[in-house]
Amino acid sequence: MYVCGITPYDATHLGHASTYLTYDLINRYIQASGRKVLFAENITDIDDPLLERAIRDGVDWEELADSQIDLFRSDMTALHILPPNYYVPVTHVIDQIANDVKKLIDLGSTYSLDGDIYLESSPYVEMLTPFTGLDREQALIIFAERGGDPDRAGKRNPLDPLLWRAPRTGEPSWNTVVGEGRPGWHIECTSIALSTIAESVKAHSEGAPTYEIALQGGGNDLIFPHHFMSEIQSLALTGKSFAGAFSHTGMIGLDGEKMSKSKGNLVFVSRLLSAGVDPMAIRWALMDHHYNEDLMWSNELLVKAEEKIHIVREALSRPGLRVSEQAVASLINSLISHLADNLNTPAALAAIVQWAQNHLKTNELEETAPLVDERHDGVGEISRAIDLLLGLAL
User: Fold this and answer.
1) Are 161 and 225 in contact (CB under 8 A)?
2) Does one domain contain both 240 and 336?
3) Which of 22-36, 96-110, 206-220 has the lowest average pLDDT?
């Protein structure tokens, strides 16, 4: 599994949290099923937005990146999001990315424009609409909005992605096999995924897979251009599709608009935590809607989450009342079934609350109920299952 990581020029907001929570749930589910997950995530710690923010704030770009990476990790830990096996800053693998760009040059898949190196996207033009749902005109507009340069004079195709950026005055650059410069945005994810987890896919797959990795994930704003570019870069490099499946999360909004840095309407995880909000309430509130649907955030969602968590915690901490093996198995199987249904977390949470309410209504000690284990009363089994599958430590 490969999930596109942060560009560390600002704190983690709820849009980030929702995305990484989704893939944490997938990671937990697959591991709980007894299979091994190799999970990689990048950090885009060299990119235009980071450099622009560093200049604006009068700070060193590396110090800014390091501080925001530390804050991101702290936020993810608080939200009980399991870390990936490979957490790769782009600045740590510049030579590796440059080697992949050199391979594309040698394959005849690139061209140079004033020292910048572009991928020829024309061989893949027929893939655009099936992959993205966009026609060419729509794609050109979005490409310009999301870091592309479709109007640059001299490009062979306006949708060609930048693979390597030649040095600019005042910008950091690295001396590599393709000369001085730094990577473009899209090639970094393709290169990191191919180098960290693709070889393992080949080693553990029956037969020869038609893709390089099993799953690529991210927000639905990455379908185009980012994930489309990952796909065509992989095809150009290896002749295989980048991923066997692509998965995308909905957007988080506030006051009727998508949450974004450009609009200044972000709700930061660290600020919620500093204000004393229970991180499990944040996690619950985000899981109480379906991951691939957009969500309009409000404080009311947190209040409702806290109310439901209170009910569950009260049931889990109720002394003396045993839960039968049948009831334990019924709830755990229900959680597994709902998660298997395209991560239906709202239904899974509803099942937990329903169990808690029923448990709290029971007035008599069920001393004769068969137990899961004579050392436990069944409640511990439920608590551990909720933590294992949903990441909720209640």
Assistant:
1) yes
2) no
3) 206-220
Alpha helical stretches, state H, the chain = 14-32, 48-57, 61-78, 94-106, 128-132, 136-145, 185-193, 199-204, 228-238, 269-274, 279-287, 299-316, 325-340, 345-361, 379-390
Domain of 306, in residue numbers: 298-390
State the amino acid at position 302 in one-letter form: L
CB atoms under 10 Å from CB of 58, counted, come to 6
- Count the alpha carbons within 13 Å of 104 in the hemisphere toward its beta carbon: 29
Helix (H) or strand (E) holding 212: strand 211-219
Buried b (16+ CB within 10 A) or exposed e, 111-136: eebeebbbbbbeebeeebeebbebee
Q: Which residues pair with 218 in a beta bridge?
A: 248
- Comparing CA positions, the residue from 28, 67, 73 lying closest to residue 50 is 67
Whether 385 and 335 have beta carbons less than 8 Å apart is answered as: yes
Picking from 199, 234, 253, the residue at the C-terminal end of a domain is 253
The pair of structure tokens assigned to 389 is 């599958």
Number of independent structural domains in the chain: 2
Considering the domain architecture, whether residues 125 and 39 belong to the same structural domain is answered as: yes
DSSP string covering 301-355, please? Answer: HHHHHHHHHHHHHHHHT-TT----HHHHHHHHHHHHHHHHTT--HHHHHHHHHHH
List pLDDT tens digits, range 347-393: 999 999 999 999 998 754 444 455 445 555 689 999 999 999 999 99
Same structural domain for residues 48 and 118? yes
Neighbours of 277 (CB within 10 A): 18
pLDDT on residue 365: 47
Same domain (yes/no): 208, 331: no
Q: What is the pTM of this model?
A: 0.92
Question: CB-hemisphere CA count at 13 Å for 178?
Answer: 30
Tell me: do 199 and 62 sit in the same domain.
yes
Dump the DSSP string for 10-22. S--BHHHHHHHHH
Considering only CA atoms, which of 261, 8, 234 is closest in space to residue 146? 261
268 inside domain: no
Other CB atoms within a 10 A radius of the CB of residue 351 amount to 19
> Do 130 and 221 belong to one domain?
yes
Task: Supply 94's token pair.
Answer: 């510049």
Closest by alpha carbon to 285, among 269, 297, 267? 297
| Rounded Cα gap, residues 288 and 13, in angstroms | 17
